[in-house]
Write a structure and sequence with these properties.
It is built from one helix and four strands, in the order E-E-E-E-H. By secondary structure, it is α+β, with helices and mostly antiparallel strands. It has a four-stranded antiparallel β-sheet with strand order 1-2-3-4, with helices on one face. The chain starts with 17 loop residues before the first strand and ends in a 12-residue tail after the last helix. The mean pLDDT is 86.
């Protein structure tokens, strides 16, 4: 596929999960962990590009990785709205403001 960001992808475009293989430098393949990297959120970089936030199930390392043009859009949106769908406080508290 020739979608943007697919040449050096480090995650599955269907489920967005990754494997902990890089240590400090992207592409170095120096990590000893090899744990599963769960997609836990998204962020928007200063240039407007979206990035996935992954947390390793083996060592709890958190990494940011750019999305690719053919990543599952439904899963990306689910990650983006998750904080709104599951707020860290009861919604009734908003009526007190």
């Amino acid at each position: 596929m020739s979608a943007p960001g697919t040449q050096h992808r480090n995650h599955c475009p269907n489920c967005l999960w990754s494997r902990h293989v890089d240590d400090d430098v992207p592409g170095d393949r120096a990590a000893d962990c090899s744990g599963s990297m769960e997609p836990i959120g998204v962020c928007v970089r200063t240039d407007g590009e979206w990035a996935l936030i992954h947390r390793c199930g083996g060592c709890a390392t958190v990494r940011m990785n750019r999305i690719a043009g053919d990543d599952n859009p439904l899963l990306l949106m689910r990650l983006a709205v998750k904080p709104l769908a599951q707020p860290p406080f009861p919604l009734e508290w908003l009526s007190r403001l």
